[in-house]
Amino acid sequence: MSATHDEAKERVRAQVWDALDAADAVYDVTAHGRIPNFKGSDGAANRLAALDAWKRAKVVKAVPDKAQLPVRARALAEGKLVYMAVPKLATAKPFYVLDPAVLEVPPHEAATSRVAATVAPTADVDALRPVDVVVLGSVAVNRTGARIGKGAGYSDIEFALLTEAGLVNAETLVVTTVHSLQVIDVPIPTTEHDVNVDLIVTPDEVITCTTPHRPTGIFWERLDVAKIAAIPALQARRGL
């Protein structure tokens, strides 16, 4: 990825973070440097839960960010199986499995990354079930479906692992929940490994994206040696 490409993404992040801070639209002291924990995330989760595709879903893969906590809690409360990645995919079994049928703590507690780490077993990709809905966090997203995270790239790797295992396909719904200020009307630079979304859900509306895109698997040439070495699931698939 070129330096120009990265710089363009950083400019978009900075603009959105600044706009959220100016509007006092996040729960944290600042939106900068993270997936924004936006005010109204409960409303966005409710709007997502009203969709037929969500109601039909049995298995949800969701990011562990605070902004998507209401989505994870809602899924568990409705009896859905929830997969959530271990931080930085740092363990050999990189996904927490939150099964509401066996959890002994309330959904809103179990859905937090801190509690999930203590109550949920972990599983390798090959032990997971096919996913009906993927919920991503975003810093910014536009109406084509292009999105930017905070820059670490773990969501894209998680998606690629699930795709290569046949657990995510063209029928899987990919959504992001965001504040309306995170929906921008300018192009977002993307590459072939970036995951676009099918739907954007804000507290006020559901936006169907015009050109959703999803990668076909892991683009090894985009991963440096240090990143592969830090993620056991990648090492296993690379035969290291």
Q: N- to C-terminal separation?
A: 24 Å
- Counted by DSSP, the helix tally is 9
Residue share in β-strands: 15-25%
Number of strands: 11
N-to-C order of helices and strands: HHHEHEEHHEEEEHEEEEHH
Uncertain segments: none
Biggest sheet features = 8 strands, mixed
Descriptive overview:
The protein has 240 residues and is α/β, with parallel strands linked by helices. It has helices spanning 3-22, 41-49, 52-56, 69-77, 107-110, 113-119, 154-164, 225-230, 232-238; strands at 59-62, 81-85, 95-98, 122-123, 133-136, 140-142, 147-148, 173-177, 183-184, 199-201, 206-208. The strands form two sheets. Strands 4-3-2-1-5-8-10-11 form an eight-stranded mixed sheet. The longest helix is centred in the N-terminal third of the chain and has 20 residues, at 3-22. The mean pLDDT is 92.
Question: Which SSEs are present, and which pair or pack?
Answer:
Blueprint: H1 3-22, H2 41-49, H3 52-56, E1 59-62, H4 69-77, E2 81-85, E3 95-98, H5 107-110, H6 113-119, E4 122-123, E5 133-136, E6 140-142, E7 147-148, H7 154-164, E8 173-177, E9 183-184, E10 199-201, E11 206-208, H8 225-230, H9 232-238
Parallel strand pairs: 1-2, 1-5, 5-8, 6-9, 8-10
Antiparallel strand pairs: 2-3, 3-4, 6-7, 10-11
